[in-house]
Amino acid sequence: MSDGKVLLQVQGLQKHFPVRQNSFIPGGKRVLVRAVDGVDLRLYEGETLGVVGESGCGKSTTARLLMHLIEPDEGSVVFDGKTVGRDLSLREYRRQVQMVFQDSYSSLNPRLTVLDSIAFGPQVHGVSAGQAKARAEDFMQRVGLDPSRFGERYPHELSGGQRQRVNIARALSLQPRVIILDEAVSALDKSVEAQVINLLMDLKDSLGLTYLFISHDLHVVRYISDRVLVMYLGEVVETGPAETLFKAPAHPYTAALLSSMPSMDPDHRTEEAPLSGDPPNPINPPSGCRFHTRCKYQASMCQQSAPSLVPIQQQAEHQAACFLHHPRSRHPQAIKP
Amino acid sequence: MNRPTLPQSKAEAADPVPRLSIKQLKVRFQAGARQIHAVNGLDLSLSAGKTLALIGESGSGKSVTLRSILRLHPPRSTLIEGSIRVGDQEVLDLSPTELADFRGAVASMIFQEPLLALDPVYSVGAQIVESMIRHGLCSKADAWKRAVELFERVRIPSPERRVHAYPHEMSGGMRQRAMIALAMSCNPSLLLADEPTTALDATVQIQILLLLRELQAAMNLSIVFVTHDIGAAIEVADEIAVMYAGRIVEQGAAKQMMRSPKHPYTFALLMSRAHGGLTKGERLPAIAGSPPDLARLPQGCAFAERCDRRKEVCLSTQPDIQQRSGQAVRCHFPIESVQEAAKAK
After folding, report:
1. What is the pLDDT of residues A11-34, one digit of tens each?
2. Contacts of B286 in chain A (CB under 8 A)
3. Partner of B46 for a Cys bridge, out of A133, B14, B20, B224, CB 3.0 to 4.6 A?
């Protein structure tokens, strides 16, 4: 996949949110939530990149930063070789990169019919009302909704699965090249989730789309993604081809995340939780390697310095940020050079 | 509440009294002119020290059933028929005072969202103490001591300090532990868990599931665990009941049901999951369509419209429960062999 063309790229992406420590006291001490702290991300044309991590790891903030829904502190987004905001207007960028959100209801305007919602974007971009409507009908067909039956309905008259199809059709109506799916199937029932996943795969094939797929469901991510990015407290801890990463995770956090998934086997139920406690607060992330407080391999050096991403077994595509994989790190259990 | 008494058969009377026994439960909600048939004739029994997982999609009636056990539905707009017995008490006959004695002390509940379920203006410790004093278990000083013990029990770090914390000061996993401590405070024999791990991360979910398993073994608790996640159900349940459109469509031992589902819906649900064994590019065997409108339930089997094994009789007649090698299944044409059904897909 890495021989393909880089479509979307960002380096050193950073976003810190200032908050008051105690919101009841005006003028209280200001602290920083380090939501995204130096994320490098590359999206190749035609691939699906899965992003996983616990809540608070910054995966949704990353998506919003990529969309420029919030402005990054550091790091600029480069789309198709052009820096967004400098060589490429935000308006044109957003025509090419669209997003589908988790909550299918709150992301639709309750006062617009389904057809008007889908036709709205193209009209903003200068398509005539009649053409936009025809295009909306076409995309409703593509996502499996009959325009004559559903076109005049309002969002509250649809089921969750149908609403998410509308959101997908709306994202498609601008004929984008990239779609960012932020937990887009997480709120759906399992039987409906499978339908929507199949739909996403079909659309990707027929329209040549590129996906950034954010989810906490590792089974779905494994199934849908070509490459996977694992985040922990605002940082990337591991990235690599989906199959390699799921079969042989290199970072202890990825391994723990994978073994936290329910076993699905009544004869071999999980006997011990791979991780204890909740993820630490991103306000004061632990020093050194941010995972050291929950890691069973932690050594004194892990508290002092932060490991960088290094290739695993000489494969440039598979990288992890852990001293275990730094041959000269002096970690007692590190691999031998 | 209109509730006909049901004849008790002799065979059932001979059995040891199950801790929870639900018979022919029907729950309907009045929503304007429409009547929502949320639960349509449900039978269930659970013995001491066992866990039953009630699984189904949204709108299948699993949470409605659970909430009926504590009578949490607004009485003015809800019609409940049938019988719900917990120990030797008939829940649907309890007076308001008896109901207040019953809730928490005999059966208690943990919810999906502890931030909504806990009172934001009292510390969690104060809420635990209040419930112990209401049920007349001990003095205030002893209650605080017991609250600390409970926090220790559910493995909240530094319990002496944390009992004085307010819900918003805790992380998601810790709040869920605190709610479990509150639910356990009056030594109930029945714990009702309504999607307690759905809002949690996988790494925290498994910790909570293991905690529930541990508490159950230590206290001989009976647990009804409502979830839409089959994976979570397998981790905790001895028995699994699958609900669809307000009815249990299949019930049996967890192990057996995972290996040989008999109802086409259970089978399709298991097949449609994305799992590690799938190859890339392979389509997920999804279930077409969506669950029926509970205000206009079909005459026949509610799943018939989405079922690939349906015949004419399925559309006209509601199937009865059949026993198939230890599993109860509500289907005219239950699956005989999983291999065969998988091939037909």
Report:
1. 999 999 998 776 666 667 788 899
2. 191, 194-195, 197-198
3. B20
